[in-house]
């Protein structure tokens, strides 16, 4: 028998552990080759037979940006299912399509940048559609399920390598690359880190992507938390991929470092392994790394640590073992199973917010479906190209028959008259949008938006009637009768050339600006006004001087108001379904936060018209975000995120009662903008944010969602001991239809020593129950789930009970309660005589923000510009006594005052004016104290306080 031929090189030997194979490959790569691997587009090493590798393949709710693929509901919609198993199956389907598409197109990468686990802290965040929930427990559960699906179940080889986005405390698009999130230690540990930690600890995450913003004054791309927290949670090699352009931002927009060599070195040392910068051009990053090496800012060991982590992921993906990789021949793409799963996910994401009995719709009901989204299947920036699509109108046609369903979109029909008396005219085209669709019906947006081969707009005596929609804040779209949107291409001319608004810079939005007796029409994509000259309709040239090219003054001639069409349709129907919501590319998206919770005025007009014509009006919100709507005047309200390819079918089946709705809100729906904190206030505890701390009355609470069935909860049993909390109860379907229920378990500390959540989700389970059926639900959790971050001792602490365990159908619909009283560690005063005080470890604050102590590590506190700041430290133990205090400060002139129990105690001398931000000095003053006292520190001026020590 002939012995098998051994592999030519050890790194090719599948019988060796990955770590040894990585060692061998590293020893064979030159420094130049290793350095080249640090860019997103790592080149091939032909002499070793190593292929090129790219980090980054968007796969948030389907394979994105690579053409036709199965499109699942938006991430926030997947969060609304509260169904871990469903989301795992979605992740599995997505990863199989990644593999199948990779076999056809090598541009498709296996390192997938998904999911987004940023918490939906603030409902005006423009990227809320990308997250799962405002709650860290629900977010981590859904994210863990999705990453498990993406990873696959093989013990050795991963189907894809998921990277979590965006580390850390990132919830605003406004100034996103220059603003700093001030995150106190309790919020950091109990809230922002928790969603990442539990998902990483589950073992199916390949890495993370830092966010654009700064946290406590330090850019996330040089965050010490990457090493001190993230990589401490797992023994696996985690790959840290920068966000696009963020390495350059460290110098160019944030001005955190003086040179790109310094910035690149700092990011690499902090733990960034792959630099996504300058597109496919790796030369700049490579030059910066080599420059940093030459200047002594980096060592080869720093480079090797990053490359080693990259190679670890590549080995896990089976790149070097194609004959052993169980996923290499995956062909599952747009299968019947994937199509059915997309519909199932869309159905499970529908949340019934209110129902006074009008739903489900009875057979034979005449339905008017109206609204700007009634015949739309919207995609977002991270969607794939649709192969299949269904709109609410199409779904209702299919379910009830076209003869039972009427339709009115509700757009305003307008003509735009020029100052010469002519009208804008859309010329006919032989090349319609339908001809840009492929054989499978998939629309390729690249063939439409930005085209210059279609005829541009002209003017004539009659003009073309355009559909005008105001999406809020005066942002308009204009659509030709054939369904194409007016857009502006690179030549500056207006054409009806886009199937939908979209793109990184949307070229299909406009604003009408009052001017004299008419309006100027500003194109928002270029920021320039529309002009008409010699029958050419275009935007002003980018370099045109003021007055060189005169904007056209248009008269807006309304030929039909949208509410008139809605009124006619509503009056002739038994039930009206108003489909309202957002376009994911307009007024709330990546790079743009929302300004209000209210629906756009155009859509509120349509809703009022429908209700006035027919009181049996159902509002179906299809949106990426919560809205503040007047629900009390409506008999029924539903919400679903944009549901992907099966959105319309799913909504119709829920409306008809074929499926009982069981989605649950993954975030609080507030009643008014006045209920919201400032978008940039990240202190969820101090400003009472999210369901955890909000003390007002929400429009709809976290976890809320109704059903066509009813459920009874009973037989609650709970105990705490042996390091765990055990809870069990029963749920019975007391209704007449098979339906899902989402059982939710919350906890509340009854006598906390510090502010704790009003209630906090511990566990959840989605159940399917036939009429009359009963299921027993049980949860077992570690006692550590009841702990909080004790800033007095800088660690987690479980307080002794009692704790109320709350079981029910939402955070406010509590059906059963029990109390457990586990043993814990009583509160102890701060040992300030021995340890002093870290400035950022306060119990309460006003008028301050946390900033970086140094560019590498640590926190300090500074007053908010123009304000006096105050820090409160409770129960400070000075022991047998102290006689002096020393403060460590930097950054400029100001004062530090220290008071015990509210009275004056010590005023520290002013530091020297003009100090550098990181040039710390110690200031001393006498302070007589013994025993336990509350301590207040008042800060004034432009200084940074890092530490307070005591002597004597």
From TrEMBL:
InterPro entries: Actin-crosslinking, BXL, CBM6, Cellulose-bd_IV, Fn3-like, Galactose-bd-like_sf, GH, Glyco_hydro_3_C. One of its GO terms (molecular function) is hydrolase activity. The keyword Signal applies. Residues 741-811 form the Fibronectin type III-like domain. Pfam families: CBM_6, Fn3-like, Glyco_hydro_3, Glyco_hydro_3_C. SMART domains: CBD_IV (SM00606), Fn3_like (SM01217). It comes from the Bacteria. Residues 830-952 form the Cellulose binding type IV domain. The keyword Signal applies. Keywords: Hydrolase, Signal. SUPFAM superfamilies: (Trans)glycosidases (SSF51445), Actin-crosslinking proteins (SSF50405), Beta-D-glucan exohydrolase, C-terminal domain (SSF52279), Galactose-binding domain-like (SSF49785). Belongs to the glycosyl hydrolase 3 family. This is Glycoside hydrolase family 3 C-terminal domain-containing protein. It comes from Streptomyces marokkonensis.
């Amino acid at each position: 028998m002939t012995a098998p031929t051994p592999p030519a090189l050890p790194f090719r030997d599948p019988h060796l552990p990955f770590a040894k194979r990585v060692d061998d490959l590293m020893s064979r790569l030159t420094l130049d080759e290793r350095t080249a691997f640090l860019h997103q587009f790592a080149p091939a090493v032909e002499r070793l037979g190593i292929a090129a590798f790219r980090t980054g393949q968007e796969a948030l709710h389907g394979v994105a940006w690579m053409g036709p693929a199965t499109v699942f509901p938006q991430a926030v919609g997947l969060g609304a299912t509260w169904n871990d198993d469903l989301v795992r199956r979605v992740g599995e389907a997505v990863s199989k399509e990644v593999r199948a598409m990779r076999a056809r197109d090598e541009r498709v990468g296996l390192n997938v940048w998904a999911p987004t686990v940023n918490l939906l802290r603030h409902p005006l965040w423009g990227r809320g559609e990308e997250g799962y929930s405002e709650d860290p427990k629900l977010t981590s559960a859904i994210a863990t399920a999705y990453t498990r699906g993406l990873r696959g179940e093989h013990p050795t080889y991963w189907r894809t390598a998921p990277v979590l986005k965006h580390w850390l405390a990132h919830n605003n698009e406004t100034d996103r690359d220059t603003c700093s999130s001030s995150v106190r230690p309790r919020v950091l540990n109990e809230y922002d880190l928790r969603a990442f930690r539990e998902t990483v600890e589950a073992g199916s995450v390949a890495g993370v992507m830092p966010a654009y913003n700064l946290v406590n004054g330090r850019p996330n791309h040089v965050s010490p938390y990457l090493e001190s927290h993230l990589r401490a949670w797992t023994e696996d090699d985690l790959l840290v991929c920068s966000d696009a352009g963020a390495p350059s931002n460290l110098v160019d927009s944030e001005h955190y470092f003086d040179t790109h060599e310094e910035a690149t070195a700092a990011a690499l040392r902090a733990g960034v392994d792959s630099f996504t910068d300058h597109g496919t051009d790796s030369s700049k990053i490579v030059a910066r790394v080599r420059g940093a090496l030459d200047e002594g800012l980096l060592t080869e060991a720093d480079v090797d640590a990053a490359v080693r982590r990259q190679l670890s992921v590549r080995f896990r993906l089976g790149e070097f073992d194609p004959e052993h990789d169980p996923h290499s021949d995956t062909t599952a793409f747009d299968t019947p199973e994937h199509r059915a799963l997309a519909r199932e996910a869309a159905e499970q994401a529908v949340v019934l917010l209110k129902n006074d009995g009008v739903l489900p719709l009875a057979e034979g009901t005449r339905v008017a479906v109206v609204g700007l989204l009634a015949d739309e299947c919207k995609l977002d920036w991270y969607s794939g190209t649709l192969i299949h699509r269904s709109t609410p109108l199409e779904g209702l046609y299919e379910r009830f028959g076209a003869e039972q369903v009427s339709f009115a979109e509700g757009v305003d029909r307008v003509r735009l008259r020029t100052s010469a008396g002519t009208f804008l005219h859309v010329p006919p085209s032989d090349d319609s949008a339908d001809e840009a669709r492929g054989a499978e019906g998939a629309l390729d947006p690249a063939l439409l938006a930005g085209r210059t081969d279609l005829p541009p707009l002209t003017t004539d005596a009659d003009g073309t009637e355009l559909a005008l929609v105001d999406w809020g804040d005066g942002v308009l779209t204009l659509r030709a009768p054939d369904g194409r949107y007016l857009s502006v291409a690179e030549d500056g001319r207006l054409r009806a050339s886009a199937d939908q608004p979209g793109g990184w810079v949307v070229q299909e939005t406009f604003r009408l600006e009052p001017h004299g007796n008419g309006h100027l029409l500003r194109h928002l994509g270029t920021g320039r006004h529309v002009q008409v000259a010699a029958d050419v309709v275009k935007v002003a040239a980018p370099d045109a001087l003021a007055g060189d090219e005169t904007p056209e003054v248009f008269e807006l001639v309304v030929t039909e108001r949208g509410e008139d069409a809605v009124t006619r349709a509503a009056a002739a129907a038994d039930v009206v379904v108003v489909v309202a919501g957002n376009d994911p590319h307009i007024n709330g998206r990546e790079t743009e936060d929302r300004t209000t919770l209210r629906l756009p005025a155009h859509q509120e007009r349509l809703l009022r018209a429908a209700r006035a014509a027919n009181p049996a009006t159902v509002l179906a919100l299809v949106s990426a975000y919560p809205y503040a709507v007047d629900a009390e005047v409506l008999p029924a309200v539903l919400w679903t995120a944009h549901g992907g390819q099966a959105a319309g079918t799913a909504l119709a089946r829920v409306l008809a009662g074929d499926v009982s709705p069981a989605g649950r809100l993954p975030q609080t729906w507030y009643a008014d903008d006045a209920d919201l904190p400032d978008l940039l206030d990240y202190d969820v505890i101090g400003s009472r944010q999210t369901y955890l701390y909000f003390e007002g009355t929400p429009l709809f609470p976290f976890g809320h969602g109704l059903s066509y069935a009813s459920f009874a909860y009973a037989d609650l049993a709970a105990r705490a001991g042996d390091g765990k909390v055990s809870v069990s109860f029963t749920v019975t379907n007391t209704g007449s239809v098979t339906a899902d229920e989402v059982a939710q378990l919350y906890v509340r500390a009854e006598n906390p020593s510090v502010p704790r959540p009003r209630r906090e989700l511990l566990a959840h389970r989605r159940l399917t129950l036939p009429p009359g059926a009963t299921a027993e639900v049980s949860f077992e959790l570690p006692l550590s789930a009841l702990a909080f971050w004790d800033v007095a001792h800088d660690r987690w602490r479980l307080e002794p009970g009692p704790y109320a365990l709350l079981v029910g159908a939402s955070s406010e619909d509590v059906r059963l309660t029990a109390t457990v009283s586990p043993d814990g560690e009583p509160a102890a005063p701060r040992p300030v005589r021995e340890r002093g005080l870290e400035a950022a470890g306060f119990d309460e604050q006003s008028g301050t923000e946390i900033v970086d102590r140094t560019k590498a590590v640590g926190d300090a506190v500074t007053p908010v510009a123009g304000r006096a700041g105050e820090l409160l430290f409770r129960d400070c133990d000075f022991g047998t006594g102290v006689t002096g205090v020393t403060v460590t400060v930097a950054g400029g002139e100001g004062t530090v005052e220290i008071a015990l129990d509210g009275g004056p105690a010590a005023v520290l001398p002013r530091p020297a004016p003009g100090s550098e931000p990181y040039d710390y000095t110690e200031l001393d003053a006498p302070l007589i104290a013994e025993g336990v006292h509350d301590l207040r520190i008042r800060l004034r001026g432009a200084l940074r306080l890092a530490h307070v020590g005591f002597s004597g």
